[in-house]
């Protein structure tokens, strides 16, 4: 079963109502093609893995898969299909419950890491309250996967994917402004002669980049005929829009999704960008590809479901612009940002640099303080070791001078040393033998 890009990214697989017939270029019957596993395209969503695992589990249920065959994009977007979740098998619900608990656990770890990084102390975290910031699941029920979870997952994916292209444009603009900022800072560091030489070199590179063959407007007859001839190897005079559509519906699901459309622009991009040329910026090439795809979607995708049906495609070939389209204006022919935007960006960079400098100074001061504390602790450690050593030496000396013990274990009187016995004798010898005579008598 082919997958419609939007619906798969939103959560579900859908069988297209109109099945395209493989083209037999040789006019002979061909054996049915084996289904080729589709490459998993990362949606860029932070819950991409959870989204894909839910898809795979829902696919295993026959009832839910049958409902998908008759569902349309609106059924998916408005949540009507979510009600069918109550009818899926028990083993499917059990697996979905397990996936949700794993996702809740992952989000809790993200929250804890965020709180730790901001030094936020919280003895009791209210996970239910904190989980409300994640819109792709029900934060009040953290254990079982219910219809509301499916509805929230679809709704969040729809909104996030719609904003995804805008975020890519903004990312590219900031990337270009950063390059220009670094270029200007580098020029400031040069003397006048070198600066003029470098500016001349940069201008020559820009002029050389602009000298490329004419780029056809994406979705125009000239652009499609070029693909028909150079990629498909067919006669440009025999160009047929219906046949072209079926040739490039590579997964044969009856629609052209965004990846299939972007593949049509490869020839036009190669006129401007050469992947083997190191001077060519691949970020610019991807931005150009995105702009081309958006241009086609704007003019062909009438119901704005990010898919081009055969009917929409054929109607676009009937428009006047299809045959009279002007050439495509590439990124090098129009500014990506204004001077005011660049100035605000540079001011933002200066603020961030000052903040980083303040943090670096604070860390340096903290490091110096830790060094001083380390020195104090080292001095205390040496004093403690010296005190322990002295105490150990005193204990050893006390063990060596022990009083004598008799045969029965009683302490014995220690004999006086000759020097000690001699001292009183000397004192006695120094006393007069008789009291002195004729001492005065006091009255």
From TrEMBL:
<dbReference type="GO" id="GO:0005794">
    <property type="term" value="C:Golgi apparatus"/>
</dbReference>
<comment type="subunit">
    <text>Interacts (via GBA motif) with guanine nucleotide-binding protein G(i) alpha subunits GNAI1, GNAI2 and GNAI3 with higher affinity for GNAI1 and GNAI3 than for GNAI2. Preferentially interacts with inactive rather than active GNAI3. Interaction with GNAI3 is inhibited when NUCB1 binds calcium, probably due to a conformational change which renders the GBA motif inaccessible.</text>
</comment>
<keyword id="KW-0732">Signal</keyword>
<dbReference type="GO" id="GO:0003677">
    <property type="term" value="F:DNA binding"/>
</dbReference>
<keyword id="KW-0597">Phosphoprotein</keyword>
<feature type="compositionally biased region" description="Pro residues">
    <location>
        <begin position="433"/>
        <end position="443"/>
    </location>
</feature>
<keyword id="KW-0964">Secreted</keyword>
<keyword id="KW-0106">Calcium</keyword>
<dbReference type="GO" id="GO:0005085">
    <property type="term" value="F:guanyl-nucleotide exchange factor activity"/>
</dbReference>
<protein>
    <recommendedName>
        <fullName>Nucleobindin-1</fullName>
    </recommendedName>
</protein>
<dbReference type="InterPro" id="IPR002048">
    <property type="entry name" value="EF_hand_dom"/>
</dbReference>
<keyword id="KW-0472">Membrane</keyword>
<dbReference type="GO" id="GO:0005509">
    <property type="term" value="F:calcium ion binding"/>
</dbReference>
<keyword id="KW-0479">Metal-binding</keyword>
<feature type="domain" description="EF-hand">
    <location>
        <begin position="236"/>
        <end position="271"/>
    </location>
</feature>
<keyword id="KW-0344">Guanine-nucleotide releasing factor</keyword>
<feature type="coiled-coil region">
    <location>
        <begin position="147"/>
        <end position="208"/>
    </location>
</feature>
<feature type="signal peptide">
    <location>
        <begin position="1"/>
        <end position="20"/>
    </location>
</feature>
<keyword id="KW-0677">Repeat</keyword>
<keyword id="KW-0175">Coiled coil</keyword>
<dbReference type="GO" id="GO:0005576">
    <property type="term" value="C:extracellular region"/>
</dbReference>
<keyword id="KW-0963">Cytoplasm</keyword>
<comment type="similarity">
    <text>Belongs to the nucleobindin family.</text>
</comment>
<dbReference type="InterPro" id="IPR057576">
    <property type="entry name" value="NUCB1_N"/>
</dbReference>
<dbReference type="InterPro" id="IPR011992">
    <property type="entry name" value="EF-hand-dom_pair"/>
</dbReference>
<feature type="region of interest" description="Disordered">
    <location>
        <begin position="386"/>
        <end position="443"/>
    </location>
</feature>
<dbReference type="InterPro" id="IPR018247">
    <property type="entry name" value="EF_Hand_1_Ca_BS"/>
</dbReference>
<dbReference type="GO" id="GO:0005793">
    <property type="term" value="C:endoplasmic reticulum-Golgi intermediate compartment"/>
</dbReference>
<dbReference type="Pfam" id="PF25434">
    <property type="entry name" value="NUCB1_N"/>
</dbReference>
<dbReference type="Pfam" id="PF13499">
    <property type="entry name" value="EF-hand_7"/>
</dbReference>
<dbReference type="InterPro" id="IPR040250">
    <property type="entry name" value="Nucleobindin"/>
</dbReference>
<keyword id="KW-0333">Golgi apparatus</keyword>
<comment type="function">
    <text>Major calcium-binding protein of the Golgi which may have a role in calcium homeostasis. Acts as a non-receptor guanine nucleotide exchange factor which binds to and activates alpha subunits of guanine nucleotide-binding proteins (G proteins).</text>
</comment>
<keyword id="KW-0238">DNA-binding</keyword>
